């Protein structure tokens, strides 16, 4: 999947659909994409019902035609650590589908959302009602968790039982075929998209975003993630260390997660404390990105790399791993540079090369912003609408 595979900006007019969306509500790409998709679909006149254990983090305030339904669970001593959330979710999906007369349930991240949607569908069938299931595969539901023996058969079953399956990159589609060998499941690639309302380049002469992040004269490098091991945040700090040796620079880390302590230790170990800022979870990530010169994403793998796309939409070139679906988003030499995962030396050297050459930096910034437009909501969301129509036909 690349630019050429993207449908042209379309004037496609979809029928009105009542859609349930189940996703993880926490800080993470799949929940972000699911929520932005729901909001875009609501703007286009569809009725959207989010179903999860908490309101998705990007669902801020009231939006027309959008309702959130919280999955509540009985606390019971017998359950101890095994509180069966998936069953409560299936019950809520069934209840909402029936009451709101949903046409389809869109499950984001297969485990357990696609499986619980199937359970809800079976309960509805029993009552003479029909519900279609669309499943979007996001990443580790296929590459890691879904392949674990404890989830493998159910993940495969959920994919095969869905009425339509999408993957966020060609890499993830191929990985699904390879790992699950589901010959019958036609996995369609619909890439992630970026909202131009939140992610846009800073005005040309406006230095205010940068000023809030770093002292005058510093170059600003930014990393945004959920600090899981797959993100290799230790590499982020080491890449920055290589840059900092040559240039005045500040590293801004946005997000939080299990490897935050590791990153903090790495920063102290390398004596970088005064030039590194840990912001934790922030809402207005676009405002941080608009103050950045470079974005770092040295992950072990990414099915897509939504964070890189959001940086590019703010006109920030990306230094990232040449892994998974990242090359489908970041074009090495055009919108940033890619290097093998773990190759910190090359990533540092590329970062320096860009930051020390203003003309090269400008070229990459322009290309990054232009490339991100290929993934605009206007281009991508109609592809979901078209898929829904096919499923409901
Ligand atoms: O699959 C995951 O690890 C979780 C998921 C998330 O919720 O953050 O991330 C994946 O989905 C994003 C949205 O589609 C992609 O941009 C990320 O690349 C992908 N993460 C991985 O593949 C590690």
Quick structural overview:
39% of the residues lie in helices and 16% in strands. By secondary structure, the chain is α/β, with parallel strands linked by helices. The longest helix is centred in the N-terminal third of the chain and has 17 residues, at 110-126.
Write a concise keyword list for the protein shown above.
single chain, 393 residues, alpha/beta, Rossmann fold, seven-stranded parallel sheet, six-stranded parallel sheet, 16% strand, globular, disordered N terminus, binds ligand GMT
Structure description:
By secondary structure, the chain is α/β, with parallel strands linked by helices. It folds into two domains: 18-193 and 376-392, Rossmann fold, CATH 3.40.50.2000; 208-373, Glycogen Phosphorylase B (Rossmann fold, 3-Layer(aba) Sandwich), CATH 3.40.50.2000. Helices cover 39% and strands 16% of the residues. A seven-stranded parallel β-sheet has the order 3-2-1-4-5-6-7, with helices on both faces. Strands 10-9-8-11-12-13 form a six-stranded parallel β-sheet, sandwiched between helices. Helix 8 links the parallel strand 8 and strand 9 (249-254). Helix 2 packs across helix 3. Ligand GMT is lined by residues 24, 28-31, 33, 138-141, 168, 192, 230, 301-306.
């Amino acid at each position: 999947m690349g630019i050429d595979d993207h449908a042209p900006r379309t004037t496609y007019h979809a029928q009105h659909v009542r859609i349930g969306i189940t996703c993880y509500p926490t800080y993470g790409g799949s929940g972000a994409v699911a929520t932005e998709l729901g909001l875009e679909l609501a703007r286009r006149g569809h009725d959207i019902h989010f179903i999860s254990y908490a309101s998705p983090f990007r669902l801020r305030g009231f939006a027309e035609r959008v309702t959130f339904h919280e999955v509540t669970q009985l606390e019971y001593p017998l359950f101890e650590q095994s509180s069966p959330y998936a069953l409560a979710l299936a019950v809520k999906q069934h209840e909402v589908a029936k009451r709101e007369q949903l046409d389809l349930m869109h499950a984001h991240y297969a485990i357990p959302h696609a499986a619980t949607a199937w359970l809800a569908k079976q309960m509805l069938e029993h009552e003479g009602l029909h519900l279609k299931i669309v499943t979007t595969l996001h990443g580790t539901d296929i590459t890691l968790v879904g392949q674990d023996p404890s989830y493998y058969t159910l993940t495969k079953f959920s994919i095969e039982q869905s009425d339509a399956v999408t993957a966020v990159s060609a890499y993830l589609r191929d990985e699904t075929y390879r790992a699950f060998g589901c010959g019958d499941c036609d996995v369609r690639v619909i890439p992630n998209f970026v909202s131009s309302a939140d992610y846009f380049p800073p005005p040309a002469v406006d230095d205010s975003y940068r000023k809030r992040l770093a002292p005058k004269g510093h170059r600003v490098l930014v990393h945004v993630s959920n600090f899981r091991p797959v993100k290799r945040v230790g590499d982020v700090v080491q890449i920055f260390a290589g840059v900092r040796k040559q240039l005045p620079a500040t590293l801004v880390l946005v997000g939080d997660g299990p490897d935050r302590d590791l990153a903090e230790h790495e920063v102290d170990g390398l004596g970088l404390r005064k030039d590194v800022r840990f912001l934790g979870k922030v809402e207005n990530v676009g405002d941080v990105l608009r103050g950045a010169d470079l974005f770092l994403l040295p992950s072990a793998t990414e099915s897509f790399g939504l964070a890189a796309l959001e940086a590019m939409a703010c006109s920030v070139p990306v230094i990232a791993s040449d892994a998974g679906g990242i090359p489908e988003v970041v074009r090495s030499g055009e919108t940033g540079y890619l290097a093998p995962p773990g190759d910190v030396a090359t990533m540092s050297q590329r970062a320096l090369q860009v930051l020390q050459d203003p003309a090269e930096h400008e070229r990459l910034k322009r290309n990054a912003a232009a490339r991100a437009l290929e993934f605009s909501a206007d281009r991508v969301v109609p592809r979901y609408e078209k898929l829904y129509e096919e499923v409901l036909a």
